[in-house]
Amino acid sequence: MSGSEITSSSAPVGDLRDGKGNEFIKVQNEDELRLAQMGHKQELDRHFSLWSLIGLAANCTISWTGLGLGLMTAINAGGPGALIYGFILVFILQSFVGASLAEFVSAYPTEGGMYHWIAAIAPKRYNSLLSFATGWCTVFGWIFTTASTNLIYATTAMALIALYHDGLVVQPWMTFVAYQILNILTAGVVMFGNRFIPAINKFSLVYLQLAWFITMVVVAAKAPLHNDSKFVFRTWINETGWDNNVICFITGLVNPMYSLGGLDGISHITEEMPNPGRNAPLGLAITLSIAFVTGLSYLLSLMFSVQNYGSLADTHTGLPLAELFWQATSTRGGAFGLVFMVWIALGPCVIGSQLSTGRVFWAFARDEGLPLSNIWARVNPKLGSPFNAQLCVTVITGLLGCIYLGSTTAFNSMMSSAVTINNLAYVVPILTNVILFRRTMRRGPFFMGQTVGMTVNIISVAWLVFAIVFFSFPYQMPVTVSNMNYTCVVVGGFLTIELIWWLIAGKSRTQADGLPPFKAITIPNVKRLSKGWDLKCWESDIHLALRNRNLSAVISHHLPQPTHDHISYDNWLKWSQLVNKWLIHNLDGGFAILLESIRPYLDLADETYLAIRDLRFPDKEDIVSEFIKLWSMRRHHFHSIAAYVGAWRAQYAATKVMLHEIKGEMPELCSYINYQIGDPRATSGKMTYDEFDGIVNGILRTFF
């Protein structure tokens, strides 16, 4: 990452550096500032609107399309009733997971997603390892998701051909060829058509609902006979070989879990949307709501309209949904048309999966968590996308497809492997949040609070752990080489590779978790630099920067066209030399401002306030420490303090305070900071107007 300065028109908190030897990060708005607070420079265009975002999220969850196309894994594991009840159950439990993820993405909106979240909240001792492991799970969970989604896409294409050519028996090599062609085409759209993806997402959002309605109505209207409610809701079919019906039912939950998976997909484009702290959780909530309505109604239409349920698994097309459409419409053309509509709907889903996978791969490479990270972390300036990372994802996805030639059973385990690895990535930050009693969780625009948040997080963890364990169970008994669930093998192999890379390179990479050493310039952090301040109680924007061990951004909106440089820790040392004449002698004015900012909830009498304000420098150190302790406890006065600070900022923004108006009072506060972190032996020097302007306005935004 590179950059030269930081400028902004709005947004909070102190001083941030990219952690890779560069002094400045440039920001132009509050969204870029939030990204800068987490140690990264804005490199991608924010061209995803809310509706485009919802379209992408709907593509990643694939809802009703996934339910229909994934019937093969569930039709014999409980029957029609189990399909419907299983979908409802999974939706409820996934909603808890979605709420937990929404809270994280609202607080930490970066394309890295879960591995950035765990980096923000985990104890320093375990930070690197947890972030590294979560990053690998996130990356390869999405790679397996893309591979399995692309396989469904290819299988559907071959089903269309089989419907057109009635005598054709689909062979594995045919599906493999279709898989590779579609992998290249969808990846090409992402690599070369980045500017068209928002439009594709909007089209997909509309088309998904249109195709859902048409297929649901046509199937229900054209079916020769309709099943009764007893068949749909009370029929139990167990052809899995499991004597325990509960385990039989659980193995069938893979299909709805897969169709409602990919909840984090929305988090991996947060650097390409405006106001991600608000829009990402909102988009996730709307997506889940749409998925439930369309998925449940679609399943009901299919189950009431199926004519011969037992023949779905033996269709020559290789796709149970195609057989069901054929039964319902009684014509090959009708079945072809409905499958074709589903196939068109699935295209943007695969593109969305490719996009999310490429973005999280790029984000993790940007934090040096992958081999050859410097190559994959590059953004192509002409295409406006991480071309190298997307190309690597395409190659890996293509190589995974080669497994299909050797064993269709092993490759089909990619679906449950994708679910399991993604669940591992989800459970790490949520479980850590529970263990730490949410103390280190930052408040984003969407925040559930302590009681509700803890309850939701605990339910999420219980469900994810349950799914990780039981979705590795064999789908059929007795277990043979041909019917084994290879999820445990795939996941075990992946974890082994991850461990090897950690031992080889992970420990030595200071940026593997994206966390450079922090030197944020705030009053509490100033004290911490000299006395080891405990920061665990922090819950504000400054808390985000400190817990991330990044620098928080120093910006200002007081001038009409702000041009203030980002002030890194190294620069503060330089400024301390330039302002040596303020170093010891001029604390009083800065102290008065500090006292004034904290006065509203100190309940000081006027005489006491004036007496403290008039104290000379040597007597004020202890009082400063006491004020800082009170400031650190501001979580108990959060609303009143937030209102006070907001009013303070609004007053200065409204009156357009110019430099000469604050010049008389801010140098002293600047000197206090330089006194705490500067070199007392520093030599004097002259400061330019712009340099002084940057410091003054940086201080204003840091403290007020």
TrEMBL record:
One of its GO terms (cellular component) is membrane. The chain crosses the membrane at residues 48-71, 83-105, 126-145, 176-197, 203-221, 282-304, 324-346, 387-406, 418-437, 458-477, 483-504. One of its GO terms (molecular function) is transmembrane transporter activity. Keywords: Membrane, Transmembrane, Transmembrane helix, Transport. It is a multi-pass membrane protein. Residues 1-11 have a biased composition (Polar residues). The keyword Transport applies. This is Amino acid/polyamine transporter I. The lineage of its organism: Eukaryota, Fungi, Dikarya, Ascomycota, Pezizomycotina. It comes from Penicillium expansum (Blue mold rot fungus).
